[in-house]
Amino acid sequence: KIPQRNRLHQFKTENQHKLNIFHQNVDRINNKVDLLNHLLSSLKPDILVVTEHGQSEEKLSNTRLMNYNLIASYSRESNLKGGVAIYSADALDMEIESLNLDPLSLPLVCELAAVMVSCPKRKNSLHILGTYLPPSNSVEKTSEAFDILSDALASFSDKHSPVVLVGDINIDDFKAKNGI
């Protein structure tokens, strides 16, 4: 069952174009495609960010969501679960480009996928950074994850464009406070 705690986020461009972005942690997508398709048919987001899809790149590229195209993704090579995927709606009237952050992603520490969305009538673009930080991270790994996120943000070519950071970012505050 897919939890319903996630929210649909809306962003307006200067020309009042709305861009609806939805995030869902699916905890392995292979047996939840029908549920996800049903949810997408009612919410109709422009951009979908999925975390913990648990698929190889090949299997993920063959996973079909109705009326959505896979634009960017990261998959773990040898560990179960994890991963990030970004889909765009077929009807999206904006240009969307995959940004390769695979060299920055580190399995079980910080997993990333990113896209750049451009509206034809705007000069700048919007970056969407999909992120998964596993819950088992130590304080040291969390610090390393923040370094990776910082490097990812610095890699975006247009420094004046807004960035939407979306995903499943697990930080154990208890460990940080107690130095564990």
Describe this structure in words.
- With 180 residues, the protein is of the alpha+beta class.
- The protein has one domain (8-178): Endonuclease/exonuclease/phosphatase (Deoxyribonuclease I, Chain A, 4-Layer Sandwich), CATH 3.60.10.10.
- Helices cover 22% and strands 33% of the residues.
- The protein contains four helices and nine strands; from the N terminus they run ββαβαβββββαβα.
- The strands form two sheets. It has a five-stranded mixed beta sheet.
- Strand 1 and strand 2 (18-25) form a beta hairpin.
- The chain starts with 7 loop residues before the first strand and ends with a helix.
- The model has no long low-confidence stretch (mean pLDDT 87).
- This is Endonuclease/exonuclease/phosphatase domain-containing protein.
- Residues 21-172 form the Endonuclease/exonuclease/phosphatase domain.
- InterPro entries: Endo/exonu/phosph_ase_sf, Endo/exonuclease/phosphatase.
- GO terms for molecular function: catalytic activity.
